[in-house]
Amino acid sequence: MDLKEKIDKDILPKHIAVIMDGNGRWAKKKGNQRIFGHKNGVKAVRDTVEGAAEIGVKFLTLYAFSTENWSRPKQEVDALMSLLVSTINSETDTLIKNNVRLLTIGDINGLPKDVGKNLNELIKKTSNNTGLSLVLALNYSARWEIVNAVQQIVSEFEKTPFNIKEIDNEVFEKYLNTKNIPDPDLLIRTSGEFRISNFLIWQLAYTELYFTEVLWPDFRRDDLFNAIINYQKRERRFGKTSEQIKH
Ligand code: IPE
Ligand code: IPE
Ligand code: MG
Predict the structure, then answer these.
(1) Which residues contact 207 (CB under 8 A, 6 or more apart)?
(2) According to the model, what pLDDT value does residue 247 have?
(3) What residue ranges do the domains of the chain occupy?
(4) Residue 129 DSSP SS3
(5) Closest residue CA from atom 3 of ligand 2
(6) Ligand nearest to the CA of 199
(7) Which of 61, 54, 134, 58 minimizes the C-alpha distance to 91?
């Protein structure tokens, strides 16, 4: 039986987030430079996006570049940025054809000008698409996102003071980059690392976590489907007892 047929369409995760990790190790294993791994990671991105769209996942967030990744050797950072631009350009038609809407989270203003420009154009071109929303996390750091939210709230308070008791979870979330995006139901991290690496700290509060040894350039839609099948076997309790969930 096809893996896809094992997926229960009635309990699909609405939002899947992925920490795409292991490009460097994949390349090293093949005796190549790290950037060779990043280039091959694009194939995994393409297949994962197609797989998610095919089964009807609504949101797919991909962690593509963290704020901390600026600390890598300049040569690697530059190569990643130009790979980003060339990928945006080469994938534009496919994204439009597949009804994918592109969104970003992270400090996009802190990216090189040409990257920001290309991204904004593609965001505009796909803004009316109604299929999968593909969210790219770029120059993203969850702590930055939270501190940034606090700064915005305080600045509004300074202009027009209000009752601080009005700030609850729902209000706070409106100041995050992910406003209007539901929290991830499932987080996948590849390459056998078991950490969050400053990704969506607020939003992952009740997310199901799935870790796989597969290195990102080898990840394909069947790996995504396996993660979803695993997710569908779990019981999400949100603090309640198992009995309460079943009745
Ligand atoms: C993930 O792969 C891609 C980015 C973080 C940009 P890595 O480049 O982190 O690969 P490893 O973890 O060193 O193998
Ligand atoms: C996390 O991977 C960031 C991205 C996938 C973009 P890293 O490879 O940067 O994470 P650490 O440094 O191993 O935690
Ligand atoms: Mg890594």
Answers:
(1) 17, 183, 184, 185, 186, 187, 200
(2) 80
(3) 10-141+183-234
(4) coil
(5) 66
(6) 2
(7) 134
Q: In what order do the strands lie in the sheet with 15-19?
A: 101-105, 133-140, 59-66, 15-19, 186-189, 208-211
Cβ partners under 8 Å of residue 245, min gap 6 = 235, 236, 237
Cα of 192 vs centre of ligand 2, distance in Å, is: 12
Which residue in the block uniquely carries the two structure tokens 């994918």?
Answer: 100
Torsion angle, CA of 197/202/206/207, rounded to 10 degrees?
-40
Give the pLDDT of residue 240.
98
3-state secondary structure of 60: strand
- Give tens-digit pLDDT for 26-80: 999 999 999 999 999 999 999 999 999 999 999 999 999 999 999 999 999 999 9
| pTM of structure | 0.98
- The whole-chain average pLDDT of the chain stands at 97
Please report where in the chains the tokens 């992925």 appear, as a residue: 18
For 71-101, letters b (16+ CB in 10 Å) and e give eeeeeeeebbbebbbebbeebbeebeebebb
**Cβ-based neighbour number of residue 8 at 10 Å:** 10
User: Looking at the predicted structure, is the pLDDT value of residue 1 above 80?
Assistant: no
| 137 ligand 2 Cβ < 6 A | no
- List, in sequence order, every beta strand (DSSP E) within the chain: 15-19, 59-66, 101-105, 133-140, 186-189, 208-211
DSSP letter (8 states) at residue 174: T
Q: Which CATH number fits domain 10-141+183-234: 3.20.20.150, 3.40.50.620, 3.40.1180.10, 3.80.30.20?
A: 3.40.1180.10
Instruction: State in Å: Cα 19 to ligand 3 middle.
Output: 9
